[in-house]
Structure formats: C-alpha cells, structure tokens
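Q: For a teaching handout, I want to show students what a protein-ligand complex looks like in token form. Below are the inputs, and the small molecule is nicotinamide-adenine-dinucleotide. Please produce the holo structure.
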Amino acid sequence: MRFLITGGAGFIGSALANHLARQGHRVRVIDDLSAGDPGRLSSQVNFTRGDVADKPKLWRLLNQVDCVYHLAARVSVPESILYPREYNAANVGGTVALMEAMRDAGVQRVVLASSGAIYGQQPEQPVTEDLTPRPTSPYAVSKLAAEYYVNTIGALWGIETVVLRIFNAFGPGQAIPPTHAPVIPQFVQQALGGGSLVIFGDGTQTRDYVYIDDVVEALAAAATVRGIDQQIINIGSGHETNVHELVEVVERVTGREAQALHVRVESGGVSRLVADLQQAGHWLEYTPKIDLETGLKLLLERDPQFIMAADTEARSS
Ligand code: NAD
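A: Here is the structure, written as tokens, with nicotinamide-adenine-dinucleotide included.
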C-alpha cells in the first residue's frame, strides 16, 4: 500500500513509518520539523519538509496514496494553555486543510491520531468511547475538534475515517524537550542522572501508559480493517498507574533510588485516566502486549539517549 504520514518525523509517526516501510509498503512523510527529526526515519521512507496546511505540497504527496495517517500536531498540554491560537491553527486548521487536499486527490481513508486527553475529568474509569468528552485544555479541545472535522467532512465527502484515541504513549525515540517533557523519558533521564523526580501534586493522579509498539500495531491495523468507517477507538494499555507506582517501576528498572520533589499541580491535567479497550479488541483485534515495566526495560535498551546516559553513569560510578 501507499501511505502518507503527516507528522511522520515525530515520536509515534517515525515508529509507524519505519514499521510500514519494513513491511514493504511505500511510505511518504510530511513534517514541518517543529518537533520532529528526520534522522529517526529509515532510508526507505520518503521525507518532505512542509506544513500540513500546505495544500499544493499535499496534492503532490497524496498522489496515489491509499491511506493517510494524520499525526501532525502540537502536542503539549501546558504549552497549549499558553498558546491556544497556535494549537488551534496547527491541530484544527491543519486537519481541515488536509481533509480538503484528500478530497481533491481522491484519497479513500484517513486514520487520525487523537488523544485520551479529550475525556478530561470523568467519574467513571476506565473511559469508554461513548462518554461525553470534557476537555480541560486547548490541546484537548483541538484534538476533539479535529475528530469532529474528520468524521463530519469524511461522511460528507465519502472519505473513510478512523479515529484512534491514544493514551500516554512511551518508548524509544520520544524526545525530551527542555520544557513540558513527557513524564516517562523525563523520569528515566532524571533517575539515571541522579536528579530529582518532579511530581505534580500528591502523586495519586493516574494515567494509562502504552508502549509504542502496541500503538504502532493498532495504527497499522486501522488502515485495512473493513467496515470501520467513522469508528472512534481507545488505544491504551488498559492499566491505571499512579505517579508513585511509576516512580517505583522507574527505580526498579534503572536500579537507582530517586529523590521525589513535589510541586504545585499544573492546570489542564486530570486526576484519573485509563482506557477501556473493548472497541479496540473488537475492531482491531488489539491486545496490548508490553506492560509498563517491560516497556521501560526496552526503552533503556533501545533508546540511544538512555544507553549513553546509562554508560556515562556506569563509568562515573
Ligand atoms: P511529536 O511532537 O513527536 O510528533 C508530532 C509531529 O508533528 C512532530 O514531528 C512535529 O514536527 C509535526 N508537526 C507539528 N505541527 C506540524 C505542522 N503544522 N505541519 C507538519 N508537521 C507538524 O508527538 P507524538 O507524540 O509523536 O504525537 C503524534 C500524534 O499523536 C499527535 O497528533 C498527538 O496529538 C497524538 N497523540 C500522542 C500521544 C502520546 O502519548 N505521544 C497521545 C495521544 C495522542
């Protein structure tokens, strides 16, 4: 098959692109490199630098594409609180531009990477796809708006759409930006470097951490399953982990005892979030295979930034 992956030089997109290319598919990537790194992509993947709202560029890249994966987005909850207009432009405007270009090029299917963040604060856990979304940040609003645009425009124009609500993905290749870094690579880096693990609030908040290979399997399946048009599907691990439990696993896997530093809770987060996976099992035959501890071990083995950190640690101790 021929695929275009928007945001394909990012963490999830590059893992997906390399996986599909290994399976013999033709893979094109468009990424503006605002957060991505084309160095993550194998030589089999065809990379173009560009904005997902650049329709002339998209027309060219969409030529003879069977399925688009739409992953291009700004992805930080705290940053979205500071710059909501930018998040709206990239995540909502970019999605609508892509749908227009797909219509023009006659592409049949799009798989949207949405987020578990759209659920917000829910009294019932695990969260099922039919719950009313209660987004608590501009990021979550933008992902929910993208879902509505994709499904609404898709139905009007005859484009098949699949929405995957991904929970907290982690694994090799996830960048650690200087501000607002994702919690898992941040904790691992801090633990290996002997720094403190910064915990927002009392550490009882929970998340659903899902390993990258499981996410990639779900994305890959979503391109070809029949009768899946308009479905919205959670992709997580199905396990709820609080921050204290996460710290314990990080300590076990790194072999370092870490100092926890509690700071004021940030806005935009929720106290509990875990995915119900029945729809994922039904539609995609999805069962997560890698638990948190195994995933963290793989992260240490496979992510160059941690292999180097672990080596430096070993040399200095
Ligand atoms: P990422 O930041 O690594 O990847 C996003 C990519 O999109 C980056 O490479 C960035 O350069 C690119 N990009 C941003 N704006 C763009 C634009 N206007 N035009 C072209 N490219 C643009 O993040 P990720 O974790 O790989 O996330 C990928 C997708 O999955 C996002 O849509 C995100 O909302 C979604 N998602 C991720 C997670 C997670 O835990 N990582 C969870 C839920 C949903």
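A: Two things your students might notice: DSSP finds eleven helices and 13 strands in the chain. Residues 6-7, 9-13, 31-36, 51-52, 71-75, 90, 94, 113, 115, 143, 166, 168-169 surround nicotinamide-adenine-dinucleotide (CB under 6 Å).
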